[in-house]
Write a structure and sequence with these properties.
heterodimer; A: mainly alpha
Chain lengths: 306, 330
């Protein structure tokens, strides 16, 4: 039972991605970027975290398509002489890691709560739905900004920088679980009324077994869709927080940190330090969003456009 | 008359809830203040003997048990006193209030842009779902959702300020003071300064609202009453605007109301990029310089804005919903 549900969703996902060139391109682009990012220590020309390896004489060099570029630095350098290509590779790795881990936390909180609410109904369901409503009416971003700002004000910028990755993961992860909970709940309601679940119940299966073996595997499709959109949101939130100076420090830059560090330089005409990490971020986000839309159309028949 | 009473009762209930929420926020602000700030260090510096410290602590009431301190904090808060800013050496409420007009005018300008573009664009996409234009708009909106607001700002600055030199890149420009309200809307310079930040802020909300308008309109256009209205001979435009849009507004206001928190966050980001002297910019300054009273005052202000706008959104929903009416109908 369980294997079939997952296999069926995978199959329909595959057929859609193949039948839809936009989603396919997005998936390939994303896979390439992710691969390059996670292979950063192997393929990056420089270690962007090792400040001692920078040379100020190499500062503010333009990328290869402009005049005066240096073949050692394909995408140019920032004002400290940091190789931008390496910084972008490592930065993408951090951004993707934070995004995926944060969504993992959201799913870990949201899916069990949604399953429970949908399966048990009644007061438990009402209570969970109520908390989800309150949580959603507060925006993640403003909550995250306030939470990290308080950490920074209380413990200082240095401590915040050291703890940035776990803090960002937890803050972004805690705030958006209701999306998973709502989707899981709605899908559970549909699934629990089906014959195979009633049959399992009649055969004497326990609640835990029914939830884990008969419901969860069959509601994975909509959850995959939610996860995709949420990853985009989490990556964007991380970038915004780092841009505000509430995320990763310049010694360990994410894409948002790089964009911020280049921001002051645009007035001097040195636009690439901001624009190239920015383009990377936007490409990743566009790809994830297109993939999310494609998956939704393929996996969630209720939401297909009329 | 009964309907009026219903409205009044609703308002009373909402006001009660709002007061409770504000009380909770004030308590959080008090807790944050207690956890983060040692006002003595700010006032006296580090190198002061302990006896003198204890004396001042007693004089300021900081050695009282925390329920007493909380009661005093809430009492002061009710009278509009949330402490003194370390940076500005002025009451924090006055500091935050002075920055409010800048943020408000930015949000107002951005909201107007969103309103005047998202309504026609969303309706167009709902009415001609398969047209090239609709696909183009929806495609662009995916792109728009994917460009972070601070990056939009940076790109606009690069193009229009640094490259073309048409528009200023930071600050509010020339402002005019009307009472306590410092407005940038009455001078050409002020409006020029407002343009890029307002476009930036609207760019992030626009795709979302186009999708919301489209979704709400699609729901209504499929309803029976729309077919009936068409059947009785009402023109297409009248059916769209008079019948469908009116009913689509209701879910729109409710869903739009959920975006207030995001709007605050995006405003903060936009203010940072354009060094717009509003509340968000002030908050980040307070954070970098650990001005705890100012930070907590911003928390209270954000909470208040949240409560007020949410209540307003609810009131508008009530007003839009023909099933509940304030006025007695004959």
């Amino acid at each position: 039972m369980s294997g079939e549900g997952a296999r069926a969703s995978l199959a329909s996902a595959r057929s859609f991605v193949l039948g839809q060139p936009g989603s396919l391109i997005a998936a390939v682009l994303l896979a390439t970027v992710a691969l390059a990012a996670f292979a950063a220590p192997l393929i990056a020309p420089q270690n962007p975290f090792d400040l001692a390896s920078f040379d100020l004489l190499d500062a503010d060099l333009p990328p290869f398509f402009l005049d005066d570029s240096d073949p050692r630095f394909l995408l140019g350098t920032d004002s400290q002489g940091r190789d931008l290509l390496s910084a972008i590779l490592y930065g993408t790795r951090i951004s993707l890691t934070v995004g995926v881990l944060a969504v993992a936390i959201q799913a870990a909180i949201g899916i069990p709560l949604g399953l429970l609410g949908g399966y048990l109904g009644g007061r438990v369901d009402g209570f969970i739905a109520r908390i989800a409503d309150v949580q959603l009416s507060l925006s993640t971003l403003i909550l995250a900004i306030i939470a990290l700002a308080l950490v920074r004000a209380g413990l200082g910028g240095e401590t915040l920088g050291r703890l940035a990755v776990p803090l960002l993961v937890v803050v972004i992860g805690l705030a958006e679980w209701p999306y998973f909970a709502r989707t899981a709940r709605a899908a559970t309601l549909v699934e629990a009324a089906k014959d195979h679940v009633r049959a399992a119940k009649a055969l004497g299966a326990g609640d835990a077994a029914i939830i884990c073996r008969h419901i969860l595997p069959n509601i994975l499709s909509p959850l995959i869709v939610v996860a995709t959109t949420q990853v985009a949101g989490a990556i964007m939130a991380e970038a915004a927080l780092s841009f505000l100076g509430l995320g990763l420090p310049i010694t360990q830059p994410s894409l948002g940190t790089l964009i911020r560090s280049g921001y002051d330089l645009i007035f001097a005409g040195i636009w690439w330090v901001t624009v190239l990490p920015g383009l990377t971020l936007v490409s990743v986000l566009v790809a994830v969003n297109i993939l999310g839309d494609g998956l939704r159309d393929a996996l969630d028949p209720r939401l297909t456009p009329r | 008359m009964r309907a009026f009473a219903t409205g009044l009762a609703f308002f009373a209930k909402r006001a009660g809830q709002a007061i409770l929420v504000m009380l909770a926020i004030a308590m959080i602000a008090f807790a944050v203040k207690g956890a983060l700030g040692d006002p003595l260090r700010e006032i006296m510096g580090e190198a002061v003997p302990e006896a003198q410290r204890a004396e001042l602590r007693h004089k300021l009431g900081l050695d009282a048990p925390w329920p007493t301190q909380l009661a005093r904090y809430l009492g002061d808060a009710a009278q509009g006193d949330l402490g003194q800013s370390y940076i500005y050496k002025r009451p924090t409420v006055a500091v935050v209030l002075a920055k409010f007009p800048a943020s408000f005018e930015l949000v107002l300008a951005a909201s107007l842009i969103v309103l005047f573009i998202s309504l026609p664009a969303g309706i167009y996409c709902a009415v001609n779902p398969r047209s090239l234009g609709a696909r183009l708009i929806l495609g662009l909106s995916v792109l728009g959702i994917s460009v972070p607001v601070f990056l939009t700002g940076i790109i606009l600055i690069s193009v229009f300020s640094v490259w073309l030199g048409w528009l200023p890149a930071f600050g509010r420009g020339e402002t005019v003071r009307i009472g306590f309200w410092e407005t940038g809307l009455l001078t050409l310079d002020g409006l020029k300064h407002l343009l890029l930040p307002a476009v930036t802020l609207s760019s992030i909300m626009l795709p979302l609202f186009i999708r919301l308008v489209r979704g709400a309109m699609l729901d209504q256009l499929g309803a029976d009453y729309v077919r009936t209205a068409r059947a009785k001979g009402a023109s297409r435009l009248r059916v769209w605007l008079h019948h469908a849009l009116r009913n689509a507004l209701l879910p729109l206001v409710a869903l739009g109301g959920l975006q207030i928190g995001n709007m605050l966050a995006f405003t903060l980001l936009t203010e940072t990029v354009f060094q717009w002297p509003g509340m968000g910019f002030l908050f980040l300054e307070a954070v970098t310089r650990a001005d705890v009273p100012l930070i907590t005052t911003y928390l209270v202000a954000v909470g208040l804005l949240f409560v007020v706008t949410n209540t307003l959104a609810d009131m508008v929903s009530l007003w839009l919903d023909p099933r509940i009416s304030f006025e007695a109908r004959q």
